[in-house]
Design brief:
Blueprint: H1 6-20, H2 28-35, H3 39-51, E1 55-58, E2 64-67, H4 76-84, H5 108-124, H6 151-154
Antiparallel strand pairs: 1-2
């Protein structure tokens, strides 16, 4: 199963909150209270998002955090990358591959294609899209039908 870490989930929640209130600066304390995430976690996520060039931060009494770009210009892929590193579904498509099978693997090219498809799908979803309520008629995100796997089919 492919799954993002909790910090990435929190990062998307924080970025969505910031995107919904771009007219004001936000400090870590008020963000923590607004999204109900512990303050140390909020600070850690904000630091990573700032380092990933997605947020600007200003110190001082009138300081705080803001999005560096418009929510329409920030993709979910960028947020994930800032918090988890480059999106790589398998070892062989990561930049630091150490797979012993890589030199003679017959499916590596296909894994690269799959990884690219996942990255581009996530890159198409913008932060502004995350603010739109999920309604099949109105959603700017193109969803595909859910595929339910039967575990007994996978294990023969």
């Amino acid at each position: 199963m492919l799954r993002m870490g909790k910090l990435t989930d929190y990062g998307i929640v924080l970025m969505s909150h910031l995107a919904s209130k771009t007219y004001q600066k936000h400090n870590a304390h008020t963000l923590s209270e607004a999204v109900n995430i512990p303050l140390p976690t909020v600070r850690k996520v904000l630091k990573a998002l700032s380092h990933g060039e997605l947020l600007t931060s200003e110190r001082g009494a009138q300081g705080g955090y803001n999005l560096k770009r418009s929510p329409k210009q920030i993709s979910v892929a960028e947020i994930i990358t800032a918090l988890e590193g480059p999106i790589a579904l398998t070892e062989c498509v990561s930049e630091e591959s150490q797979c012993e099978q890589e030199s003679h693997c017959t499916v590596q090219t296909n894994w690269t294609r799959i990884n690219n498809a996942v990255f581009h799908a996530l890159d198409e979803v913008k932060l502004s899209d995350m603010l739109v309520p999920n309604s099949a008629d109105e959603s700017p995100i193109h969803f595909y039908p859910s595929v339910k796997s039967n575990k007994s089919e996978l294990h023969g």
